[in-house]
């Protein structure tokens, strides 16, 4: 088990962002979190990644420390694509894993300034950056945003390859087709509460 929450709530300024969440996240599985805007997806991701402490309830975690996470608005350095890709591995003083970088053909635009490229190229850079450190647990918030169809297909194939390596993968998304394609387990949030948790394919049969 990667982590387990029991009656976990998170409150900001007396407003409940998460309400009595009780879920299990399994090792080596892909778990998707879906819900409307403001339903608590990002808060739950951050909580599961030890970036937010629960206001009440419990969180049992296999590691008890955060992993590099893809945020909806990643940090951007006003430099080249290459610099933005390499910065995380340099901070960790390791050789960057190049698989995602090469798959997205980022080497073709490596010397371009990041503010000169499209939103999709930026997103591919952020995805490759997170994966450059080969994290044991992959946590992503809206990973497919701004990606075109071809890049989305590459993303799906890359994630499924990571699963074959027994990675634990947790992501939040509005892209239901991606969720159907890759997620083993599904958590559906509504106003901070879980309204479904279980096998993905079973939910879409409802």
Could you give a short description of this structure?
This protein has helices at 41-48, 81-92, 99-103, 119-131, 149-164, 176-182, 200-203, and strands spanning 3-12, 15-25, 30-35, 56-61, 69-70, 137-141, 168-172, 185-190, 193-199. The protein is of the alpha/beta class and 206 residues long.
Describe the structure using short key phrases.
206 residues, alpha/beta, six-stranded mixed sheet, 7 helices, globular
- Label the overall shape: globular
- Please report the distance between the alpha carbons of the first and last residues: 27 Å
Strand content: 25-35%
Q: In angstroms, what is the radius of gyration?
A: 17 Å
Helical segment tally?
Answer: 7
Instruction: List SSEs in N-to-C order.
Output: EEEHEEHHHEHEHEEH
The biggest beta sheet reads: 6 strands, mixed
Oligomer category? single chain
Number of separate strands = 9
Summing up helix and strand content along with how strands pair, one would put the structural category as alpha/beta
Mean pLDDT reading: 96
- Strand order, largest beta sheet: 5-6-7-3-8-9
Low-confidence segments, given as residue ranges, are none
Estimate percent helicity.
25-40%
